[in-house]
Amino acid sequence: MIRGIFLTAIIVPLLMVMGFRRGDDSADDVLSKVQKKYDTVHDASVRFTEHVRFGVMNTEQTFTGRFLMKKGGMYRIEGEEQTIVTDGHSVWTYSRENHQVVVDVYKEDPKSFSPDKVLVNVPKNYFATLLPGEESKDESAVLKLTPRDEKSQIKWMKVWINRSDWLMRKIQIQDISENLTTYTLSDIRLNTNLQDSLFRFTAPEGVEVIDLR
């Protein structure tokens, strides 16, 4: 399952590198090192596990998937029920359950966070604070991100950054509905020369194609 929050909010801390209003010098130092790391990234492949605890229903769900991106507006998100692919011009949304692919023109929303922005330009929407008391066994630096916009659907985010390579390893998001979403990242591969063909989608045989372009 790939929910809307993944495309608009979760991808932000996944590879987030710049554009935060610094909370203090320590947070600034951590973000600066992460920025330098990701300045060298041209493409990336990441596996993720998404665990959601729904506040109102008091239920939990877990999903797994893979995220691929390449500079130039290209990304691919493969979930258990849905695959979303864009080459920066068209976007394909494939629902396995519905046996249907919807194709549309890729539209850049300045208020959202597309995966390509993640590595190069995140809007200045958050205050960042280092939480030294929450460092984990691998000595990750933990940042808490608080939206500057009081109307944001997100209350806060926490991002765990591994100090050995300055890559994100875990993200938590608390939204205004008290849903807590945790992403654990693994098998992070950078600059493996991902082919452009990965960011185009061909519908499987027998699947309905709805072209809205």
What's a quick, concise take on this entry?
The chain is mainly beta and 213 residues long.
Describe the protein.
This protein is mainly beta. 15% of the residues lie in helices and 44% in strands. It contains three helices and 13 strands. It has helices spanning 4-14, 25-38, 115-120, and strands spanning 21-22, 43-54, 59-70, 74-79, 82-86, 90-95, 100-105, 126-130, 141-147, 154-162, 167-175, 180-190, 208-211. A 13-stranded mixed β-sheet has the order 1-8-9-10-11-12-2-3-4-5-6-7-13, with helices on one face. 31% of the residues are buried. Mean pLDDT is 79; it is low at 1-25 and 111-123.
Supply the key terms.
single chain; 213 residues; mainly beta; 15% helix
SSE order and pairing:
Elements (H helix, E strand, L loop, with lengths): L3 H11 L6 E2 L2 H14 L4 E12 L4 E12 L3 E6 L2 E5 L3 E6 L4 E6 L9 H6 L5 E5 L10 E7 L6 E9 L4 E9 L4 E11 L17 E4 L2
Parallel strand pairs: 1-8, 7-13
Antiparallel strand pairs: 2-3, 2-12, 3-4, 4-5, 5-6, 6-7, 8-9, 9-10, 10-11, 11-12
Number of helices in the DSSP assignment: 3
Give the strand order of the largest sheet, numbering strands 1, 2, ... along the chain: 1-8-9-10-11-12-2-3-4-5-6-7-13
How many runs of DSSP E, i.e. beta strands? 13
- H and E order: HEHEEEEEEHEEEEEE
Mean pLDDT across all residues, rounded? 79
* Span between termini: 25 Å
Structural class: mainly beta
- Described by the principal axes of the CA atoms, the overall outline is globular
Percent in helix:
10-25%
Computed Rg:
17 Å
| Beta-strand share of residues | 35-45%
Characterize the main sheet. Answer: 13 strands, mixed
Poorly predicted residue ranges = 1-25, 111-123
